[in-house]
Amino acid sequence: MRYLGLDLGTRTLGISISDTTKTIASALKTIRFNDSEYDSILPELKSIIEEYEISKIVLGLPKNMNNTMGERCETTINFQKKLIDTFNIEVVLQDERLTTVQATNYMLEADISRKKRKKKIDSLAANIILQTYLDREKGGKL
Predict the structure, then answer these.
(1) What is the pTM for the complete model shown?
(2) Overall number of domains in the chain
(3) Residue 81, Cβ density class (10 Å: 0-12 exposed, 13-18 middle, ≥19 buried)
(4) Which CATH number fits the domain that encloses residue 127?
(5) How many CA atoms lie within 13 A of 80 on its CB side?
(6) Domain interval for residue 49
(7) Where are the beta strands (DSSP E) in the chain?
(8) DSSP string computed for 67-105
(9) Residue 100 half-sphere exposure, CB side, CA atoms within 13 Å?
């Protein structure tokens, strides 16, 4: 059993996956879809959940820097409910503030081109979301 990390955008879904010990997260892929057509990504997610025997989904919650919840949080919470209803699986929310900034900084430090960064940013942000959750869970700080 593994965990799946998700970074939901308006046209992309970054996906990462844990190892079977739930210790290390790895970027898996990015799904692209038409603006806010979240239902269109459910079949591919179903395939991933079944293939990797996912037992929990960790979904990034895009809070504002002042800890308030804006429109994107509402969209994310609605997506969380859709995932629970569709897959009958636990979906936890993980604060994702600054994960995209962290992902960008990692890739800049690695001297990855702008074109390649654009393709990888969402799955790397999902990786950071999931790894943060795994680290907290191992440390007992949930």
Answers:
(1) 0.85
(2) 1
(3) exposed
(4) 3.30.420.140
(5) 20
(6) 2-138
(7) 2-8, 12-18, 25-32, 54-61, 90-95
(8) S---HHHHHHHHHHHHHHHHH--EEEEEE-TTHHHHHHH
(9) 16
pLDDT, one tens digit per residue, over 67-106 is 888 888 999 999 999 999 999 999 999 988 766 667 667 6
> Nearest CA to 4 among 52, 41, 75, 40?
52
What is the C-alpha separation between 60 and 118, in angstroms, rounded? 19
Two structure tokens written together for 33? 């879809």
Amino acid at 99: T
Candidates 20, 1, 14; CA nearest to 94 is 14
d(CA 92, CA 105): 26
Residue 30 forms beta bridges with which residues? 14
